[in-house]
Amino acid sequence: MRVGILTGGGDCPGLNAVIRGIVRKGERVFGDELLGFRDGWKGVMDGDFLRLDVATLRGTLPRGGTILGTSRIQPFMFEDGVERTIRSVEELGVDAIIAIGGEGTLACASELHKRGLPIVGVPKTIDNDIGLTERTFGFDTAVAIATEAIDRLHTTAESHNRVMVVEVMGRHVGHIATWAGIAGGATVTLIPEEPFDIDEVCQSLTRRHKRGRFASIVVVAEGAKPKEGTIEVEPDQFDEFGHVRLGGIGNVVANEIEGRTGFETRVTILGHVQRGGTPTAYDRVLSTWFGVAAVDAVHEEAWGQMVALQSNEVVLVRLSDAVRELKFVNPHLWAVAQQFFA
Ligand code: F6P
Fold first, then answer.
1. Predicted confidence band of residue 132 (pLDDT cuts 50, 70, 90)
2. DSSP assigned state of 76
3. Domains in the chain, ordered, with CATH?
4. Coil/strand/helix, residue 176
C-alpha cells in the first residue's frame, strides 16, 4: 500500500518514534511505500511530501520534534481546501493516511474520513487531553521536565524564603500541573478544571508560613482561571488559528500573592521547554507501540479509527468519539493532589 503520514498541531516528544514504528513495520512486514507529508494537513493539500524508509528514520528515536515538520493549517480553513486535499490524495495514489496529532488535527481527520478519505489517527499532545486514550505520548516527558524544574526551584526558594510560581502548559486541562505538582511536592496547584480563589491560595500560603515554612511552590496550569469576580485578568489573545494564546496567568498569580501576603515571589514560565528535546523511555515505547498499531490498523482498513491506550493495551476507538470531548483530570487523582496542599 502507499501510506501517507502527517504530524499536525504543536509538536511533541515521541513524534519521530511513531513515524519510525509505522515505517519499520510498514516497509519490512507489509512492503508498504511510505510518504511523509510536510507540515501537517498543509502537505497533504499541497501534495508536498518526502519519501520515508527505514534508513531515513535511523537515529530519530530519541530526537524530539518531528522530521516532517508541523503546522496548524487545515483544509477546512480554505474554500477549496477539502477538494484540493481529496484531489491530491487521489493524484498521489495514496491508499491510506495516518494522521498524528492533537484535538485539531484529529477532528480534521474525523471530518475528512466522513468525506471518504481512508484515515487512521494517532493521538499526540503533551497536554494528555485526548478522549478515550489513557495516555498520549509526550505527556510523560513534559511531566518529567516540569518535575525536574520544580525540584530545582525548591532549593532556591528555600535559600531565599520565597514563593515560586511555576507555570506549566495545559490549555484546557491540568494533567501536567496535577502530575508535576504531586511529583514535585507543590504547596498549591491550580488547574483549568477548578477555577481558583486567590484569597484561599494566599490563606494557605500564610498558614504554611506561620508554621515556620517559608518556601512554597505554586504550580499553575497556563489555562487556570480565577473564580468569577475574584481577580482581573487580561482579556484572552488569539493566534491566527483562533487558538487562545496563553502564558501569563503565572505572573498574575505571583503579583497577587506578593501583594496580598508580602511574601517575596518569583515566577518561572516553563513554556515550550516542556515540549522540546528527547522523549522519556516511556514515551518512546508508547509512541513506537502506537506507530506499529497504526500501520496494522491501516492493513485492517480500520478507517476513521484512532489507536488508543486502554488498560495497558493499544486498542482502536472511533476518531469521532475520541474528539467529541476532552479528557479532564481524574477527580480521584485531583483529590490526592489536594491532600498535600498547605
Ligand atoms: O497543545 C499543546 C500545547 O502545548 C498547549 O499546552 C499550549 O497552550 C500550546 O500547545 C501552545 O502552542 P504554540 O505556542 O505552539 O501555539
1. very high
2. G
3. 2-138+279-322 (3.40.50.450), 140-276 (3.40.50.460)
4. helix
Place of cell 475528512: 112
> Do 127 and 169 form a contact (C-beta atoms < 8 A)?
yes
User: Within 10 A of 42 (CB to CB), how many other CB atoms are there?
Assistant: 22
C-alpha dist (Å) from residue 247 to 133, 137, 138, 234, 339: 26, 22, 19, 11, 27
Contact call for residues 308 and 314 (beta carbons, < 8 A): yes
Segment 158-190, tens digit of pLDDT: 999 999 999 999 999 999 999 999 999 999 999
**Residue located nearest, by CA, to atom 16 of ligand 1:** 10
The span from the CA of 201 to the CA of 223, in Å, is: 17
Q: Hey, whose CA ends up nearest to atom 10 of ligand 1?
A: 10
Answer yes or no: 11 catalytic: no
Task: Give the angle 246-65-127 at the CA atoms, nearest 5°.
Answer: 40
Whole-model pTM: value is 0.96
Atom of ligand 1 nearest to the CA of 103: 1
Residues 6+ apart with CB under 8 A from 299: 1, 30
